[in-house]
Amino acid sequence: MKIKNLILTVSLLTLCANIGAQTFKEESDKSVTEAQTKSSGNVTLVFQRESSIVLKDAKVFIDGIQYCALGSSEECTVKTSAGKHVLKVDASMTTGEFSKPFNFDDSKTYTFIISRKMSYTVGAVFGILGTIANKAANQDDNETDDGTFTMELKKD
Fold first, then answer.
1. Which class is domain 2-153?
2. How far apart are CA 122 and CA 74, in angstroms?
């Protein structure tokens, strides 16, 4: 009976968090529109989010500026300059994030696949101890991969 109640409580809390995150979508969309007007350069970055049941938007940042907020199966394209840039994927009202530096060559197109991170879900189920363990296992000095979403460069 205790396990059943725990599962119901975790499910209810997850549902409430996902619904709460949707209320921030309009504010997020406004900052995305502002960022897209700032995007320029001859390097094309394509962000594709895989289909998933996670209701939160995957917020995509380049050098600390948000450019996209992707729902399930959505895609966005951003222009940037060649050189080193830090890409970050985050979600509202969650702990952790994906953050990693990439070096982009002039006049090339790079496609990134954003997907749900299963170890984050396991960490969330086990509460604060699971979150701490997930963060410790998925972070180093230059990059972080301990959030709801992860991202990888698509191989051609």
1. mainly beta
2. 25
